[in-house]
Amino acid sequence: MVATLKRQYGSGIREASTYLGQNYMVVDPSLIPEFLQVLRDQEQFDYCVDITAVHYPQREKQFDLIWILYSFARNERIRVKTLIADGETVPSAVPIWPAANWLEREVYDMFGIRFEGHPDLKRILLPDGWKGHPLRKDYGIIQQDNEWVQINLGIESGQ
Amino acid sequence: MTDRSSPLELEHADKTFLDSNELIINMGPQHPATHGVLRVILKLDGEKVLGTECVIGYLHRGVEKIAENRTYTMFNPYVDRMDYVAAVSNGLGYCEAVEKLLNVEAPARAKYIRVILTELNRLASHMLWLGTHALDIGAITPLFYTFRDREEILKIFEKYCGARLTTHAFRIGGCQYETYEGFEEDVKKFLKFVTPKIDEYEELLTTNRIWVERTRGVGFLSAADCRALGVTGPVLRASGVKWDLRKAQPYAAYSDFDFEIPTGQNGDTYDRYIVRMQEMRQSLRIIEQAVGKIPDGPIMAKVPKVMKPPVGEIYHSIEAPKGELGYFIVSDGSTQPYRVRVRPPSFVNLQALDQMVRGQLVADVIAVIGTLDIVLGEVDR
Asked: Beta strands of chain B (E only): which ranges?
């Protein structure tokens, strides 16, 4: 599979490797969403398990964006990873897997990564008016949106 | 919560309320049938549901953020607080994920103890689901029966590790506690006790006319929809997909046991009920096989006192009572995980609610929320 994809995309696939028996690929952000579409249609990865991100503030491309996919037919998992900078947008995977809807909303809520073409990109776990994205590394563990807490809860601090 | 009340907008917002047949109703977050703090905004035409929107996050505690500020061992008890009716499964998934990252394997004895406790927990979770689901639909008796019998499972947990709900039963590398004196007898006694009880639940509901009318054809979800929406667990199996991670990608000691994957055909609320009832019997089968032959030996693998997994990432998932529960852990080589992502089955399954209730009656929304078997502690984390 990797060989076919590599032939098709060449250097767009930066890395395709295995760690602890799990396969992953690092691809260029410009290949998204076409690459995901190909994985679903040609390689039968019909189940989008999870979409998540990891923040590395010291890097120039601050975020790892990760799709965890599973194929029922092959009983196989794969992780697709791409590196993006702060403020960079990524095309939404909702047209490929409707499951991506809430998962992308959570990534947006927690990291502030915007997905282009998402039908309803808004916060999901935190209140709509909240400021900040808590899973970024520069967001402290006891940090909160004090203004929001004061206005909506009528108290000085939620801590 | 002013800014959260902008739900599905009416198509003709300028019309007065009476001119329109469409009605927007808010259900929850404080509602007995939402199983916690779930808020659903319903757009209705008379009794027909035109659309829904879920508002979640009321129970958000930032579990993933907490993980980044704790060591691997310290974070272990926190995972119990997500799906708090199936805490043992949560712990199993986390411990196994970290074990993979550390490249250690739990000893055989620990694996068997893990399987027994996890399957007991699956039973407890399904019992709680059955009781509350039936109560929502109008049958009160099953609730008393299931809570009475679930108590016996919790007693075993209490005797084993001192806690009933948030058990923290496992440790990274195995189990902290050896089984107590008489553990096997207790489990065997429980198996004998509970088998006729499951028949009893079925007698109350399976052919009960009200139950059948309220559940058959309600909340239909096809196998293709399930795959597209990422729905897993009994909901997926009730739509006819024979897929269970315990068989597909066996973990712990599941490959040693003989059991079936029950499936349905119709993908409705009634089939999901039947699938879960059969799953309870399969769990009994697994426990029965495991309890007779728990191997001797150590219960803990050799793990370093200070855990520093090598730099890398791992995704490990297990079949929790609600579906695929996954942990994606990134290690930077220090004592604390760089990132822990939990893939919660309830969160992803809840997304299917809209599709399942569109065009159905408002009373069916209650049945569908019940049949999805969500726990808000896990949805919101």
From this structure: 22-27, 39-45, 48-55, 170-171, 174-175, 312-320, 323-331, 339-343
Closest CA–CA distance from residue B285 to any residue of chain A (Å): 25
Bridge partners, residue A24, by sequence: A17, A79
Decide: residue A71, CB within 10 A, 0-12 exposed, 13-18 middle, 19+ buried: middle
pLDDT digits (tens, 9 = 90+) for B225-272: 888 899 999 999 999 898 999 988 888 889 889 898 999 888 899 999
Return d(Cα B206, Cα B273) in angstroms, integer. 9
Q: In the predicted model, what is the mean pLDDT of chain B?
A: 87
**Selected residue with higher pLDDT from B10 and B95:** B95
Minimal C-alpha gap between A24 and chain B (Å): 10
Q: Would you state the pLDDT for residue B296?
A: 87
Side-chain-side CA neighbours of B73 within 13 Å: the count stands at 12
Alpha helices (runs of H) in B162-261, residue ranges in sequence order? 183-205, 209-215, 223-229, 234-238, 245-248
Chain B residue with Cα closest to A44: B227
Do A68 and B343 make contact, defined as CB atoms within 8 angstroms? yes
Model pTM score: 0.86
Whole-angstrom Cα distance, residue A47 to residue B232?
10
